[in-house]
Design a protein that fits this description.
- The chain is built from 22 helices and 12 strands.
- It folds into 3 domains: 174 residues, Up-down Bundle (ABC transporter transmembrane region fold); 114 residues; 254 residues, 3-Layer(aba) Sandwich (Rossmann fold), CATH 3.40.50.
- With 600 residues, the protein is α/β, with parallel strands linked by helices.
- Bound molecules: adenosine-5'-triphosphate and magnesium ion.
- Magnesium ion binds next to α13.
Length: 600
């Protein structure tokens, strides 16, 4: 994937409200209806309690202070205290409640997404970089969490407060309410002006942060090359540039913010000034009580805080919306189609499967019409071992991939006994067929975990199986034995040790058909003999396909199939193929020379 493409994906679409996305998001929240409803009710209650403050204050002035009613003042003071206390308690409970909902929604989404990613075809992972998928599962889900923790309910509260204040204002005094409303166009202009700039700047910040992350990622994974070729300074300069870019954008954003806040405060002061001036005049003429004026001023003062809050939260909303869009986009990626057929059920299939494999005019392409397997037909009897031979890129690994249905073929049929493999449930298929891949993947964990693939099994059984194929010397050589800690991707093991693990893995899995995609790297002659010997024992009594790079392995096979540019060009035993004098005999002569050199 090109870098630009990756970045452009991080540009926010700019849409704040997308109906289908909001609907989907709501469907997650609806799983926690009761707590959700409770939160909304509590927000409304806190708003009402909040609005009561200025009103009671004004009431105390008009009916208590001016009339000298001490007991009323006392009562109102106590009520104000009670209201504030109740409001604070509600806020605490409410904030806990909404954040808990947010966390649960995040957990649900993450699990659902993980399950979905597990169901995606291997070809999806060819086309999508790991970084992007991980971002979906972490950052994007995090953005949704933020929507709950910092955003949605506070904004609902803010909107309630704004509406509530206006209702209270119009109830108290219509003229003053209209005066306050008069400054609103200015607010709208400021909000639009700064909102847009802040939005663009925020988008740039995200984009530049993504660049920092991906550059960091590249630098760390490529550290070996960077150090070996003395390219530290070059990559330092490159990173420095990206980092400075990010700083510039951040400063810009902070500047907008710094100006935006005082602007809103100015408008707030303007509104307060207008109300004070007009209210005072009205009061002097006896049209307005002092209490109403004070209450009004308090409302005007409180009106601007939620407005500022909403404009500032805009980015969180937009970020969450884009993240949600991306998450749901990934969820829409089609899962592998699996023909679940009732018969044969997988156990039945496993038990009565004899181990016969037949390719019938198979065509396969990774992309479009770019066929890498062309009209391949061959037949393997139960228990036979067959070698696939051919130069690099001739399609050997691809045959293994379509046989295990990591990829689906486009034309022709692959038969397992009398079953078309496309009609066998994948789970069932993978019970009977095992692949030792060319690139061996190891998980972080112990040696035992990597051999059993985290299936609890007694050590005696594990060691017993390893013993039967004669690979104990490997275990004895690894310090710690089965308990040895394996680093991520097996970084602390030699290539030979990794091969040993993958062979032990397949032996424990014990499938009826084994495909061995040999790694090309050579080992010391003693280990080589051990591994070759183990392979011979593994393939006994099983149908085996060996993608062989070593002559010693090929010689033991019942049949050899020679591939060239995705086509089958020769088939037969070693002697037969030598007699024909085609591609195989050419390859064989090269092999012979190499073997002579290696073992000289
Ligand atoms: N995931 C993929 N997506 C697209 N094309 C691929 C993919 N994997 C392999 N190919 C292409 O398919 C062709 C056959 O590749 P394949 O891996 O089957 O070769 P091979 O015979 O196993 O080679 P080697 O001996 O080097 O392992 C090659 O041209 C390769 O570029
Ligand atoms: Mg290969």
């Amino acid at each position: 994937m090109k870098q630009e493409e990756f970045f452009s994906e991080d540009i926010l679409s700019g849409k704040l409200y997308n109906r289908t996305v909001v609907k989907k998001l709501l469907s997650y929240v609806m799983r926690y209806k009761v707590s959700g409803l409770l939160s909304v009710l509590m927000v409304i209650a806190t708003t009402v309690l909040f609005l009561m403050g200025p009103y009671l204050f004004g009431y105390a002035i008009d009916h208590g202070i001016t009339k000298g009613d001490k007991s009323l003042i006392y009562k109102i003071a106590l009520s104000l205290l009670a209201i504030q206390t109740l409001r604070l308690i509600l806020i605490v409970v409410q904030s806990y409640n909404i954040q808990a909902i947010g966390q649960k929604v995040m957990l649900d989404m993450r699990m659902e997404l993980f399950r979905h990613v597990q169901s995606l075809p291997v070809s999806f992972f060819d086309k999508n970089p790991v970084g992007r998928i991980v971002t979906r599962l972490t950052n994007d889900i995090g953005a949704i969490g933020e929507l709950f923790s910092a955003g949605v309910i506070v904004v609902i509260g803010d909107i309630c407060i704004i509406i509530g204040i206006f209702v209270a204002m119009f109830m108290l005094n219509v003229q003053l309410a209209f005066i306050t409303l008069g400054v609103f166009p200015i607010i709208v202009i400021i909000a639009v002006l700064f909102g847009n700039r802040m939005k663009n700047s925020f988008r740039e910040i995200r984009r530049k942060l993504a660049r920092i992350n991906s550059s960091m990622n590249e630098n760390i994974t490529g550290m070996k090359v960077i150090q070996l070729f003395n390219k530290e300074q070059k990559f330092y300069d490159k990173f420095n540039e990206i980092n400075n870019d990010y700083l510039k954008e951040q400063v810009k954003y902070i500047r907008y913010f710094a100006v935006f806040q005082p602007m809103i405060n100015m408008v707030s002061a303007l509104a307060i000034g207008l109300v004070l001036w007009y209210g005072a005049v009205r009061h002097m003429h006896g049209f307005l009580t002092l209490g109403v004026l004070v209450a009004f001023l308090a409302y005007v003062h409180d009106l601007f805080e939620p407005i500022r809050d909403i404009v500032e939260k805009y980015n969180i909303f937009q970020g969450a919306m884009v993240s949600a869009e991306r998450i749901f986009g990934l969820m829409k990626e089609p899962s592998e189609v699996d023909y679940i057929i009732s018969n044969p059920a997988r156990e039945v299939f496993k038990n009565d499967f004899k181990g016969e494999i037949r390719f019938e005019n198979v065509w396969f392409a990774y992309n479009g019409d770019d066929y890498v397997l062309k009209d391949i037909s061959f037949h393997i009897e139960p228990g036979q071992s067959v070698a696939l031979v051919g130069v690099t890129g001739s399609g050997k690994t691809s045959i293994a991939s379509v046989l295990t249905r990591l990829y689906e073929i486009q034309k022709g049929t692959i038969w397992f006994d009398t079953y078309d493999i496309q009609k066998i449930e994948k789970v069932g298929l993978r019970y009977v067929i095992g692949l030792v891949s060319q690139d061996i993947f190891l998980f972080a964990g112990t040696l035992r975990d990597n051999i059993t693939l985290f299936k609890p099994s007694p050590d005696s059984q594990v060691l017993g199986k390893i013993e039967t194929i004669g690979l104990m010397p490997f275990i004895e050589r690894i310090p710690g034995g089965l308990d040895a800690e394996i680093a991520e991707r097996g970084a602390n093991l030699s290539v030979g040790e990794r091969q040993f693990i993958s062979l032990s893995r397949i032996i424990l899995y014990d499938p009826r058909v084994i495909i061995l995609d040999e790694a090309t790297s050579s080992m010391d002659p003693i280990s080589e003999v051990l591994i070759q010997d183990a392979i011979q024992r593994v393939i006994k009594e099983r149908t085996t396909i060996i993608i062989a790079h070593r002559l010693s392995t090929i010689l033991h096979c019942d049949k050899i199939i020679v591939l060239n540019k995705g086509m089958k060009v020769e088939e037969g035993t070693h002697e037969e193929l030598l007699r024909i004098g085609g591609l195989y005999s050419k390859l064989y002569r090269v092999y012979m020379k190499e073997e002579l050199i290696v073992h000289a």
